[in-house]
Each structure stands twice: as structure tokens, then as C-alpha cells.
Design brief:
The chain has 15 helices and 10 strands. By secondary structure, it is an alpha/beta fold. It has one domain: Alpha-Beta Barrel (TIM Barrel). The longest helix has 19 residues. It is globular, with a radius of gyration of 18 Å. It starts with 8 loop residues before the first strand and ends in a 9-residue tail after the last helix. The structure holds adenine and zinc ion (ZN).
Length: 333
């Protein structure tokens, strides 16, 4: 493997609980005096999962150990500092109020921890972080609308967007139209998981949701050339996670991944790591994958970052400041 590319990096798609490495989960369980849930780990350093739905269950088990505002602060801080060390300047963290609620945390406590992690990581490294509020398809419509309404009632400069994760194949996007309308009306930028474990119809359903201008994954749009043309025409930005897609069996190999075809078709693409310790690649390593397997040189990788800065849901002053640094050598490397 060659070194991590020496360009500034930005990440628009990473699940906050999914950033916590096994070592951190062990540490938090010990601090909170809670046992490690049965079935969480294959061994001390590896989460145990076999397919996508099993992965979602394992994710929920790991999240159940993250219990306090201090825990959320530590998860965010440790992740952002690791990202900064790879030359990453900006990260949008997908937060899940349902997971915090499941461990008895109020949304204010949950947010206080996340915001402290962002502030501390910025002070330590200069990295910028923002928050996307996420609903989870398989937690149901009622929970989704409650989370959206709560987000709308709690505006904050760090909370800039709205996403939907979970079981794409089992829970159609259209059921969540009202949740997205609430979030969009509240001024949150909207993105949605689609085109990962279901095909073009699911991507079309996500595009029909109020406010959706980005897609988390979206890669299976490639199965329908008219849809690919529509994505290019609309300027919809895809948050592509190549290693996640290979690890979860969406594609059998990097060689089979549609990233180059989508780029060639004029679709706006960014790179992201999704749930890095589960799938085995950091954001820096995803840039390396794009160089090695998709043939992107440094100029093309900088363009990926430029697309991410442009599509970020942060305020325009922050995006402009980030864009000014695009051609500098990132600190951290
Ligand atoms: N939650 C965490 N990671 C996810 C993914 N890759 N797809 C859908 N939901 C998720
Ligand atoms: Zn995801």
C-alpha cells in the first residue's frame, strides 16, 4: 500500500457511533461499569457481523455502550483528531438521537457531548466538524417524525443537516416524506441513504423526498443509465464509501465498483468511510483507494474534496474558508 495522499480531505458521511473503535468501546464499557454486549466482538479488536442486517444489529450493540455526554464527547474528539492526522479538514458526523435516547440521554446531553468534542478537536488540530441529525428507517415513521420535530425545535449552528440510515430494502423512503418535510422546512440540508442495499427505484424514492440534494451511497443508480444522467443533470452529490460497499458485499471488489463509471458520467462524487472500524478503512485510506483502484491523481482527489466543500451543509463562510485551503498542504500529515 502506498501512503495516504497528501491532499486536504473532507468527509460528508460517517456515522458517529460507527467511528468508535473496539478499544474505545471497551474503555467506555469499563468506565460506565457495563458489560460488553454478547455477540458484539469477534475478538478484542474486531466487531462481529456477517451481513448488512447483522451489521446494523452489531452497530446498535456498540452504540448501547456509549452512555453519557462525556462518552459522546470522547467518541467525537478521538475520531476528529484521527481524521486531522490524515489531513482531513472537515467532517459531517451523522448523529442518531434514537441511539442516545435508547441509553437514557436527553437530546440536549447528547448534543452537549458532541459539540464539546467538535470544539476540543478544533482547538487541538484546527479540524472543523458539523452534525447531521439522522433517523433510522427500521425504527419506524413515528420515531422519525419525532426526531425531525425535535431537531426543528432545537436549531444550532453546528446542526446543519438531516439524513436517513437503516434498512433501505425493508422500509421505503416515501413513508418518511413528512419527517423530511419537517427537517427541510427547518432549514436543514437533506441527504438520504439509498442505492446501497436496494437499486434505482430506491434512489428515485429518496430523490423524491423534500429537500434531498445529496445521497449517502447512491452508487446503485449505475444500474439505470437514465437515472445516472438525471443525477448528473440535477447535480446531486453522492457520498461514496467504496470500502464499506466492498465489505458489505454491495460489490465484490474495488475493480467492480462503479465509482469510475459514475465520475465519467459527470455525477458529483465525494469520498467517505461510513463506519470505519467495521469496514477497515479510514477517510485517508479511502482517498488512497481512489488513487490506487480508480486512478485518481492528486488533482482529481483535490476535486473530490472541492466537491465536498461545495456540497457541505455548513454555512457559506465556513465553506469558503475551507475552499481557500484546497491547494495548501494539509496539516497533520
Ligand atoms: N447505519 C450505519 N451504517 C449504515 C449504512 N452503511 N447504511 C445504512 N445504515 C447505516
Ligand atoms: Zn452510512
Amino acid at each position: 500500500m502506498t501512503a495516504i495522499p497528501d491532499v486536504p480531505k473532507a468527509e460528508l458521511h460517517v456515522h458517529l457511533e460507527g467511528t468508535a473503535r473496539p478499544e474505545l468501546i471497551h474503555r467506555l464499557a469499563q468506565r460506565n461499569g457495563v458489560p460488553i454486549p454478547d455477540g458484539l466482538f469477534a475478538d478484542a479488536e474486531t466487531f462481529h457481523w456477517t451481513d448488512f442486517l447483522h451489521f446494523l444489529g452489531t452497530y446498535d450493540l456498540a452504540a448501547s455502550v456509549i452512555r453519557t455526554a462525556q462518552d459522546y464527547r470522547d467518541v467525537v474528539y478521538e475520531y476528529l483528531v484521527q481524521c486531522a492526522a490524515e489531513g482531513t479538514t472537515y467532517v459531517e458526523l451523522i448523529s442518531s438521537p434514537d441511539h442516545a435516547r435508547n441509553v437514557g440521554l436527553s437530546e440536549q446531553e447528547h448534543r452537549d457531548g458532541i459539540f464539546q468534542g467538535i470544539d476540543d478537536a478544533r482547538a487541538a488540530t484546527g479540524i472543523e466538524g458539523r452534525v447531521l441529525v439522522s433517523i433510522v428507517r427500521n425504527f419506524g415513521v413515528e420515531a422519525a417524525e419525532r426526531v425531525a420535530a425535535e431537531a426543528a425545535a432545537m436549531p444550532h449552528p453546528y446542526v446543519v443537516g438531516f439524513n436517513m440510515a437503516g434498512d433501505e430494502a425493508g422500509f421505503p423512503a416515501g413513508d418518511f416524506t413528512r419527517a423530511f418535510a419537517i427537517a427541510h422546512d427547518a432549514g436543514l440540508g437533506c441527504t438520504c441513504h439509498a442505492g446501497e442495499h436496494a437499486g434505482p427505484e430506491s434512489v428515485r424514492a429518496a430523490l423524491a423526498l423534500p429537500g434531498v440534494v445529496r445521497l449517502s451511497h447512491g452508487v446503485r443508480a449505475v444500474e439505470d443509465p437514465a437515472l445516472v444522467a438525471e443525477l448528473a443533470e440535477r447535480g446531486t452529490v453522492l457520498e461514496v464509501c467504496p470500502t464499506s460497499n466492498v465489505a458489505l458485499g454491495v460489490y465484490p471488489s474495488y475493480a467492480a465498483h462503479p465509482f469510475p463509471a459514475l465520475l465519467e458520467a459527470g455525477v458529483a462524487l465525494t469520498l467517505a468511510s461510513d463506519d470505519p472500524p467495521y469496514f477497515g478503512a479510514t477517510i485517508g485510506e479511502e482517498y488512497q483507494v481512489a488513487r490506487e483502484h480508480f486512478g485518481l491523481d492528486d488533482a482529481a482527489l483535490r476535486q473530490i474534496t472541492a466537491t465536498a466543500y461545495d456540497a457541505a451543509f455548513a454555512d457559506s463562510a465556513t465553506r469558503d474558508r475551507l475552499a481557500k485551503g484546497l491547494h495548501t498542504r494539509p496539516s497533520g500529515l
